[in-house]
Every structure is written in structure tokens, then in C-alpha cells.
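Repro:
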Amino acid sequence: MTSAKISRRHFLKAVSLAGITTYIAPFGSSAYAALFEQKLLTPMHWDPSTGLARFRVDGIAKVTGSKIFARDIRARDLPNWPDQQSHALILRATLADSIYTGFDLSRLGADLKPDRIVTADDLQRDGVAFSDFYGEDMLLPAGKTPAYLGHAVAILIFHDFARFRLAKDALKFQDDVIQYGQHTGPLQRDPWGTFRYVRVGGQDGYAEDVFSSLKDAPIFPSQMRKRLPVWPDGKNHGAVGEEGMYYAQQIRQELENPPPDWLVFKRKYQTQSVDTAALEPDNANCWYDQTNQTLHMVVPTQSPSEVAATAADMLAKSRFGARTLVMHPCYTVGYGSKDHFSMPFYGLVCALYSDGRPVRIANDRYEQFQTALKRHAFDMDYQISIDRNSGMIQSCVVDMVANGGGRCNLSPSVVMVSATAAQSIYYLPKSDMMSRADASRAVDAGSARGYGTLQSMAATEMLMDELAQELGLDPIDFRLKNVLKTGMKNTQGAIPAGEVRAEDVLKRAQLHPLWTERVQRKNAYETEHPGKLYGVGFACVQKDFGTGAESSFAKVEVSPDGRILLRHTGTEIGTGMSTSQALACVRWLGQPANDIGVAIVDWPDLPMVSSGDPYLMSQADQDRLSTDPAWTPALASPASASNSAFYYTHTTREAARLVFTHGLWPAAQAIWTSGIGGGQAAPYVVRREDARWVKGMLTADGMQPLGLAQLASKAHAMGLVVGAVVHGFNRWQWAEADFMINDKPERLPLDGLALCFGAQAPADGQLTDKNPSGRTNGSADQRVVSIDAGLDDTLGTQSTTKGHYQVIRRHAVYYSPVQRNNAAVTYYSAMGTLAEIAVHLASGKVELLNHHSIIECGTLLSPQLVSGQIQGGLAMGIGHALHEHLPLYEDGPGNGTWNFNRYHLPLAKDVALWQQTAEILPPLSDTDPPKGMAEVVMIPIVAAIVNGIAHATGQRFYSLPVTPEKIQEALA
């Protein structure tokens, strides 16, 4: 065995998390290339004449099988790791209503006996436990009832693969391995979270609200009784909660006794538990180097900062004495399944108990179904009132209950978002939206793509279609009557950002032949296809993007020869984020980044700290903490909530803009004005606002086009800004701060800034102060590990210049008030989908003949990536509407017997592969920001299909998926 030697040549800076020195070098970044002497990402191939990338930067590595996924990494692939790879499997309970008493491995015999067995007793003795977020009983101790189906009870470690494989096969599907005692029934626990948003608008959608969450506050239960929330009494005697409940009760009472000209609908909807079916099943490969007290982790994750912090905290509290954590967050495909998932920490445990050997733990598909985070199943009760004369919605009440499964995970956030999304694209004058996530014995549910909005907005769109039919109105006309317009308020009382374009989507859909010709097409199709019923359905939604505490670092730097380096905290999870962020540099630098590093956690050039909870802190705390110029409410967001296109691009472009404004533009001016009489610029008026990049060359007002290499060389020679590291924070609006740049004040939509000036380059080896504040990223008690200077920083934030970064201290900062959290959302993307379907009378099978989607998502960074997201999201939505379903309890995936042989993912034949079309609304101007759209694309197809089935059969369906059996029963 060779010991791991972390060269200081490869790691200039490290952070201390919970007293554990932490190094993070993402796979696929230049940090990985420097550490492991290989390069996995392809330099950007970009056509300046079209502005399009020829392929993704990670595309070739993925299709050729290069090792950028954690699942492909073995110990022998990693320098300085031992060559021998150990393997582990987890024993899990398949009942959750009886006491667990132990396990029996007699099936293995002496030859297949594990080399190490880890149980709850070991963890308790050694002080190893989950963080509070993941709950208790990482391994269930004997004598307790499992909290959920699939609860881990023991880890078996084998030091050779053959015995591991044989043992796993011997234990799989056997009912006598896990032992049970007394029947107790499932555990009864309080809900994971409960939210309520009440709004009573003014005289119209633009007037001041009578009551709303943003103006006043959301309503929270006053107590829990018999595991259910008890709400304030509603007597309106001064407290905000009572006032809100007073209006909530008024809304509900009015629905029970409506005016005679109101139509009141009451409907119940149900959506199913769904597997995220991630391309890469959960896995981890970890090694605890006992000699150097260093834990190495190779993991796929959407949230590397969270994994590093949680792992360091677990190590610090244990008796193992670990001093160093080295983590490699790999590229992955997540879509929610790897955001705050627990597998990395089971990998950590395996390493701690493997006697110094690397251990790989990797789910097969049965284990993935049994343990991976699921999409929440929802039960929803809708009550809505419409004025029959005008066709206008008057009020809406929704009560939602989600099954959160056995661990809390992100269930509270999911149900909060489901409540705020239930209005879909409509203006609701009065609303009461209540949502609850219940704890159950089901498999954990988490932040699956759609995040609660899929469930609530699909139901809303099914309801709207039925309401239009009841009123005798064209379904799109009815939607247009009630669509939320620009400047109107959402159900939290907030005004959405910018132009709200759902109305444009509706009008475009109304003109499509699938809609205008639906009657003729139905008659023709059913005549030509006896035994089939034809229908066209439509749905339109607008989905929020972001979380209300979005934050990121970005670094953009140009070398003297015109190469662009980009570093970002964002993580690649299959969305093409690494490619799109490289392309985001084009706007200000004329070409995409050449050298790309993502999932960067350490930022020594811009040391900042974070403390407190950005969602829960008081205004007084925020005001006090923000006096520290290095403080921010949040350091870095996971890759989730469709945040890359808008939020990640913001910091990338702000960094690039600073390099352009304070580096490349003055360099261009210097070139254009050189020579007698002011040079070529003197006869013209040359303004920065007229600057344009044309085919990779900068010009303005008729000036000589200049290439990036020429500009960069001049900027370096003149000592101008050639690199910028920035940090941004967004609580439904961007934080701003005042900075002094070149002795001039400038207000920027950032809360942290460091700049690199070309002429300040020190000689090689000269000490440079990269951390003048003495702080590093993380909580206030963290520190920077002192190591040699003057070497290449290969943590992923290295410079291509000889200069050093100077932190530009902010003089004032303007964070949005914490009350802004109550807005819950202000950013939206809209999408409408038309679905053409046929129902086979004999079998009840639904055939998707065609579908057309219309989306607005601002200015596109990469049309190819947007197209890919649309197609993939539509396939997921089709599966949700027609095929995918997991039983919640004993006959569901928690019993360990589910795989794709029992679970129908949509195939090419199910998705109208060769007929489907989509169009993207052009931006209002080329200054429109790109919008997050990876989630909205999967939602409207769900309701469009169900509405199409209603058009075909005359039958409404309220429970998903709509299976052939349900259709046959309805038509019988």
C-alpha cells in the first residue's frame, strides 16, 4: 500500500470545516487534471459566425466512457490510492411495522463471510452519526421499529469482488436475512412541514392587497394535535396569524355559501410516487488513509459544499481522529436525486471501518429503486369559484398533503413550493393555499425534478380545462380571461419579475393547427381508425426557478494570449451547465471560456464567510452581520431549482463584464487612440455602449476590429483588470453593493469582489497576499491553512496571469429585506403544450400521436441544450401522466424487488419521437436574461395528455397515471 501524498504544489489553499482540513478537487476540472495528470474535458469548439457551440465540453468524455462519473472510478484509477478495491453492500429492513431484532448471514457460509460488518453499535461506540438534516439511526439498532421501508441496518464489507458478488446474490430477495420481533405498527410522527399562504387582493390585481404573505406573513400552525396542525383561531385580534386565518375562513365560508351567479367546483386530485430513474445510480468510493488521518471521497453530488461540510462535521464528532478530508465531486446526472442524498455518508462509514482499504459502495437498480429519493405522492383538494357571467375566477382554496417518506429531506421546501405554484398562470383575487408533508414509512421523497409544482400545477390545469367545459368556453379563451398579467400579484402578493409572457404562449397555441383543426381532425381520425378515439388536450403553466437564497462564486480571467479561464461553484448534473457557462462569457469577451472548472468550493482570492439561515434570520441579524464586508447570507447553491441559466450566468457575466469594462475596453481605446492626433478614433465619437463583438472581434463606431489576444496583451501591459472573482446573492432580487474601482465608486449587483490587475504581477515565487482578511469560505471560525505561496493553485481557482487578486472591500451592501422571503417566488418561465392522442377502445391504451410545445425562456445561451432539456422533460412528463407508478408501502420499491422490468419508463415509441415539435418565443430584446427552464418543460404535457383523454373519451381522470385499466373501467 502506498500512502497518499497531497502535494502543496497541487493545493495552494484549503479550508477548515469543523476543524477538518478540507481539499476539494472536482473531476473534470483543471484541478483534477493537475492532480491526476489527465484532461477529460474537451476545449470549447465554437463557431463565431453562428455563436453556437459545436458540442458540449463534456460530450466526448461521456460518449467515449472517460472516467468523469464517480461510478466508473476504482481505487486503481487514483494515484497514491491502494490498488486493491473493497466493496460494500447495505442490509435493509423490508418491513416497517415490527421491531427489528437482528440479521442472519448463515446463507453465506464460512467462505462468503464478510471481512467487516458495521452495525449501529459500532457507530454509537465511535460517535459516527448523520447530521441533524438526515435524522437519526443511520444504521438501525436492534430493538427499534424501522422508520421506513429500506431502513439500513448493517453494512457488509468484502475485500475482494468475487466474494462480494456471490454474497450479494445469495442474500438478495431473501426474507429470512433480516429478523423481526413484536408487531408495533408503523411509527407515528408529526408532519415534516406545513405551510399556508392566504391572500385577499385589492380591487384589482394591481391594487394594494388587503392581506398577503409578502405584505404581512405566511400562516403557521399554532400547535400540533394528534400529529395534525392546529391553526390560529382566526378571530382577528391583532396577531398576524389570527388575521390571516380570519381571511382564510372568510374565503372558505364564501365558497360554502356562494352568490347565485357563482360556479363553485370541488375536485380531488392524486399524483403518484415516481422514481427519478437517474442515469447514474447512487454510489461512493472512499478511502480512509489511517497513516495520514486523511479521508478521501469520490462522490457524485449536486451539492458538493453540503457534502463536504456534512462529512467534515461527522468526522470531527467521531473518535477516528481524522484531520483531513479530500473530496472529488464528479460530474453526474441528478435532476434532484443527488441533492442532499445520503449515499456519500454511507461511503464515509465504509471507509472508516475498512482497515485502511478503499471501499466502493454502488447501488444496483434494485437497490436504487429501494433507496433513491422519490418524487412525492400528493393528495390535493381544490375548491374554486368563477363568476358565470364574466368567466372570471373569484377565489381558490387548495389543501395539499404530500407523502414525505421516512426521512424529512427537503419535503418542507417541496410542499412550500407546491402551494405557491398551485395558481399556475392565473390571477386569483382571493386564495388560501395550504400544504403539508407527512412522515410515513415510504421510501424517502426529495427534490425530484418538478419539486412539488408538477403535482399542483398539473392538477390546476386539469381543473381549468373542466371548468371551461362546464362554462361552455373554449379552454384557451377561458385561460386568457384569467391569465396573470404583467404587474399583477401572485398568491403570495409579490409582483413577478419583468414581462409575464404566459399570455403570449396562450395566443400562440390558440393559432396552432392542432388546436384550430381539432374538431375536423377528430372526425377524420375516428372515421379512418375504427376502435380508436381521438383527442387534443392543452395545458399551460409557468414555473418558478430558484430558491430565494441563490448564491454563487465565479471567476473569469484572460491570459496575455487571450485564453479565458472560468471557475464556478455550479455543478454539472447533466444540464450542460459547464458548456452554457463557458458560452456566457461570449457576451462580454467575444468568445467562450477555454479552460473551465466547475463545482469549485474553495475561493482563496475572495474570502467570504456565511452564518445564520438566509430563510429564517431576523432583519436585525441580517443588518448586524452585513456590516462585515466579508459576510454573505449564503456562499454557494447546489445545482437545483433550474438555477444555472439565470443565477449562475449572473455571476459569470458580472465577472466577465468587469474584465471587459475595466480591462479590455480601455485597452481597445488605447489602441484606437494611439498615433498622431488621437489616432483612428479622433474623427469619430467612440462610446462603450456602442461596443460590439462581431465574429470574435471587438469594434465600436467604425473602429478597427480587435481580437481578444491583442486586447488581452494590451490590458496586461497597461496594468488593467484582467481577472475578476465575484460573489452574488439573490433573495428574489439581487443584492447590490458599492465598491471603489480605480478610485471611482460603482454599485454592482454583487456582494463580493476581487480584481486582478495585469501590471501588479510579482516575480515567480514572490509571496502574494491572497487572503488579506484572514478568512476563508464558510462559517466565521474557519481558517486558511498556511502553505507555500508562489506555486500554481490547482484547487480550481488558479490564475493564468502572473498577477494577484486584490479584494475590493464593499463600502455598503444592500440585501433585500428578509421579509422578501415571504414572496416565495418572483422569477417564472412559461410553457404551453398541445397533445394529440388516440385511445384504443379495446385495450384502453393511450397512444401519443404528436405534441407541440411553446416556451419562453429569455435569451438562449445554447439552443441545443434548451432543445435537449425540452425533449427530456417532455419524456419525463409523459411517463408521469401515463406510465410511471410506485406503490408507497410494502408492495412498493422499499421491499427491494423493483427494477425496470416492473417500472415502465417511456420509450421512443411512447413519446411521439419523430413527430414532436417545439418553438421558443423570441426574447423581447437581446438584453433579456436567460431563464431557468429545465423543470417547467416536463409539467404541461402531463395535464395536456389527461385533457386530451377527456376530449377523446368524454371522461375526466383525477388520479395519475392514467392507465389502460382506469380508462377501461371508465368506459365500461
